[in-house]
Design brief:
Blueprint: H1 11-28, H2 39-46, H3 48-70, H4 76-96, H5 102-129, H6 142-158, H7 162-171, H8 176-202, H9 207-215, H10 217-232, H11 236-255
Helix pairs in contact: 1-2, 1-3, 1-10, 2-3, 3-8, 3-9, 3-10, 4-6, 4-8, 5-6, 5-7, 5-11, 6-7, 7-11
């Protein structure tokens, strides 16, 4: 359980909260994939269930920074395709997440991410083998359905839908700013929907956890500023390669 009073936190726990806030800011303004590495660390420091209640408000604050800067760049067509399936996955995660073992969740998430990665490789290969001038058919309706269900489920259970969303948006071949803006709007909406579920259904988001999350805002803001500076200097191809590598590393990390 989360400590009854935030003054009971140890210095190393405060340091982890600050570092996680910095990484959340980086992730929400473009360096997608890096925040997943801190999910198991926060779970070890505060307990699996309690850590999700602490991370959620931190993620919401980070989402606000991302939306504030990239709000005009979102591809709302992709959001409309994804959101109904994500809400269904969210409901499923809320129902089964209480009894899901941490090890089972990590393996399930890693498998989902690797499956999506394989689909992306297949799609790119299909495009490379296509006859010049012939359009490449996009993945069918089932792909956003699968991605939405997986993103909703994993974000509810462990605040860990970043890799799934990264792979889905990269498969849509969105430009860099549209990629970040679409992800920012998606996570702001879905994380706000999660708040009442965490408070009233799981009972793991408390006044104390919100106070600790509030203390991380300066670190989140610093990470968001650094993320904007770094992403602004990244070429499109390097950016996409970076997020793919970080996503693959995150998926393999979960299997350890």
């Amino acid at each position: 359980m989360f400590p009854a009073f935030w003054s009971e936190l140890h210095p190393w726990q405060w340091a982890l909260v600050g570092t996680t806030g910095l990484v959340v800011g980086l992730a929400k303004t473009g360096l997608s994939g890096v925040s997943l590495l801190f999910v198991p660390l926060m779970a070890a420091a505060f307990g699996a269930k309690a850590s999700t209640g602490l991370l959620l408000p931190m993620l919401c604050f980070g989402d606000l920074f991302g939306v504030a800067y990239y709000r005009r760049h979102a591809d709302f067509k992709q959001l409309i395709r994804l959101m109904p399936w994500a809400l269904a996955g969210l409901a499923a995660g809320a129902g089964v997440g209480i009894g899901l073992e941490d090890g089972e969740f990590k393996r399930l998430l890693a498998v989902l991410v690797l499956v999506c990665l394989a689909l992306m490789v297949w799609q790119d290969r299909k495009k490379n083998l296509a006859v010049p001038g012939d359009p490449v058919a996009p993945l069918g309706w089932w792909f956003p359905a699968l991605a939405g269900l997986a993103a909703g489920f994993t974000t509810m259970v462990g605040n860990a839908a970043g890799p799934v969303m990264t792979l889905f948006l990269l498969s849509m071949r969105l430009p860099k700013n549209a990629f970040i803006g679409t992800a920012a709007w998606f996570f702001l909406i879905i994380n706000l929907v999660k708040v009442p579920l965490q408070i009233f259904f799981w009972h793991n988001m408390t006044g104390e956890s919100v106070l600790v999350a509030l203390s991380s805002i300066p670190f989140i803001a610093t990470g968001a500023w650094l993320g904007l500076k770094l992403v602004g200097k990244m070429p499109e191809r390097f950016f996409k390669g970076f997020v793919l590598v970080m996503t693959g590393v995150s998926a393999l990390f979960l299997l350890l």
